[in-house]
Amino acid sequence: MSETPSNLAVVHFCEDLLSRPSDQRKAKDILEIMSRIRHTSALFNSLEDDALMNVIKNAGFLKVKKDYVIFRQGDEGNCFYVILKGSVTFYARKPDELCGDFLPTAHQEMGAVRSTQERVAYFGAELGSLKNGRSFGEMVLMGGQKERNATVIADELTELIIVNRELFKQSFQTYDLEWKEKSSFALTYSLFISWPEALKGLLIENLKMHKISFGNRVVEQGHPCHSIFFIAKGAAKVLSDPRKCRDQFKKLNPRAALAKKKEVNQGDKEEKIELNAMEDLVRPLTVIEKRRRRIEHGFVAMETRLRQREIQATTIGPNDIIGDVEMILELPEFCASVECVQNLEVFELDKSSFQRLIARRSPKTLETIRDIVISKLKLRVERFHEIPLFKYLLQRAEALPQSDKHKTVNQRHSKLPDVKPLLNQWKAQAKIVKRTPLLGKQVKPESKRDVFTSKEKETMNSNKKRKGKRLRGRSERKDPNKPKQYTAEEFRALKKQMQAQGKMIGRVPDD
User: Which stretches does the entry tag as region Disordered (predicted)?
Assistant: First the structure.
C-alpha cells in the first residue's frame, strides 16, 4: 500500500529531525511529529507527552543498509533500539559454540552478509524476526547482563531510534517495571527455565502482561483464538456452554455429528435418555416448562439457571495455561471460556510468536504442553462424557503421530545443507591463498588433481565441443533486418568489383 504525498512528507521530516543534533531539535518541530512517533510503536504509545518529547529530543537515529550487522553476540551494549522502519532478524549460537573458531570478524571484511548459509555459519541458528514498531536490545539495560545475547542483521533498509541508558532511566520508568516483571516470569516459569538466554530475551520482548479483575473474562468460547496465556498469579474457572460445544463439534467433525444423530435415532432407550439429558441443557425452555420449574426449584434458582447455561469444567491457577488446547490442535476458536475468580496476572503470547519461539525452536517445550493438553481433556471427558466435543479433541490430541509432533519446526533451516563443510572449506582457502609481498595480489592455489581418468577426459572433451558448437551457433545467427558491416579491405574489394561492372559508387579515400 503506497503512502500519500503528505504522509511521505511527514516521514521525510521525521527522518530529517531525528538526524539533527539534539540541541537543534526545536519544540515546535517535535510537536509536529509527536503523534506519528507515538503511533509507530506500542512502547511510545504508553508514554506521557513530556516523556515522549524528551525521547524525541535526545534519542539517537541510525540507518542500516540491507544485510548489514547491527550488533553481534557478545558485544557490550548500553542502549536499545526501536524499529522506526524496516525489519531485522536474530541469530544466536549456543554457549559452548562461542568458544570455537567461528570467524567472528569475517562479516566486517565482506560487508553485507546476504546468504542465509553464511549467516547461519557465522552467527548461529535463526531465532526470529521483528518488524517496524518493535524494540530489541533491552536486556543490557534491565539487569546485570552487559553483553548482547544475539546477533541482529537488517533484512532491508532499516531506520532505528536509539535509546541510551540515561534516557531510558528518565522516560521509561513504567516500561522498566513491566520489563522486570516479564523477565522474572520468563526466568522462573517451569517451561522456560532450560531455554538459552537469547531465546529467553526474545520471549520477554514478545510477551504482553495483563491484569484482570474479578468477574471479567480472559477468553470467550467461540471467539477467534489468536494468543496463548500463561497465568502467573490469581485463579479462574473454566466454563463450557453445551450449546456452543454442540455447534463447534458440528463444524470440526460434521460427518461424526451426523452419524451420531442417526445412531441415537435407531438406538435403545438409554442412549435416548442420555441425549435428552444433553438436550435439557441445550434447548430453550417453553413458557409452561419455565413456570413448572419455577414452582419446583424456586424463582431465584430458576432465574439463575436461565441466566447461566454454562457448566464449570475446572478451576485453574498459577503455572496453568489458557489456550493451549487451541494452539496444539490448531483450532480457530476457543473451546471454553475462562472467568476470573481472583485477580489475575497473565502474560500473553500471540500465535505467530508461539510458532516461532516454542513450536519451531523448543520441541521439548511443545511436547510438554501437548502432554498437559491430553491430561486436561481426559479429565473433561470423564466429567462430561455426554459432550462429544471433548472426546473428539482428546482423540485428535492422542492421534498426533511421533513424526508430526514437531512438524512446525522451521522447514526453511531443515532444507539448508550442513554448514560445517562450508566452514572447513573457507578455512582451507584462507590457508592456501597467499599474498605476494610486492603487489599484494592473491595467488590462486594449484589444483589438487592434475591426473584424470580416461572417462573424465572424454567427458571434459565432449563438454568443450558442445560449448564450442553453442558459441559458433550464436555467432552464425544473423539478423536479416540489420545491414552488414564491412571492413576497409572488404569495402575496397567490393568497390573494385562494382567499378568493373560499370556501377560507380561514392569515392572513398584510401588509408
Answer: 443-488
Contacts of 54 (CB under 8 A, 6+ apart): 167, 170, 171
Q: At what angle do helices 299-307 and 287-297 cross, to 10 degrees?
A: 130
Bridge partner residues of 339 (DSSP): 217, 237
- Which tens digits make up the pLDDT trace of 453-495? 666 667 777 776 666 666 555 555 555 566 667 787 888 888 8
Instruction: Report how far residue 135's alpha carbon sits from residue 406's, in angstroms, rounded to the nearest whole number.
Output: 29
Task: Answer yes or no: is pLDDT of 378 > 70.
Answer: yes
> What's the pLDDT at 45?
84
Question: H or E segment at 353?
Answer: helix 351-353
The rounded distance, in Å, linking the Cα atoms of 158 and 83 is 7
Kindly report the backbone phi and psi dihedral angles of residue 248, in degrees, each rounded to the nearest multiple of 5, phi listed first.
-65, -35
Find, among 196, 192, 168, 167, the residue nearest to 182 by Cα.
192
Spatial separation of the C-alpha atoms in residues 127 and 93, rounded to whole Å: 10
Using an 8 Å Cβ cutoff, are 348 and 321 in contact? no
For residue 351, the tally of other CB atoms under 10 A from its CB is: 17
Nearest alpha-carbon partner for 409 in 66, 126, 157:
126
**Closest alpha carbon to 326 in 294, 287, 354:** 354
Contact 175, 141 (CB under 8 A): no
384: Cα within 13 Å, side-chain hemisphere? 23
